[in-house]
Amino acid sequence: MPLELILGGVRSGKSGLAERLAADGGGPVLYLATARPGDGEMRERIRRHRQRRPAHWSLLEEPLALGAALRDLGRRAPAPTVLIDCMSLWVSNLLLAGEAVFERERPAFADALPAYPGRVIVVSNEVGLGLIGMDPLTRRFADELGWLNQDLAARAERVVLTVAGLPQVLKGPPLPPHRD
Question: For position 180, what pLDDT does the model report?
Answer without folding.
Answer: 59
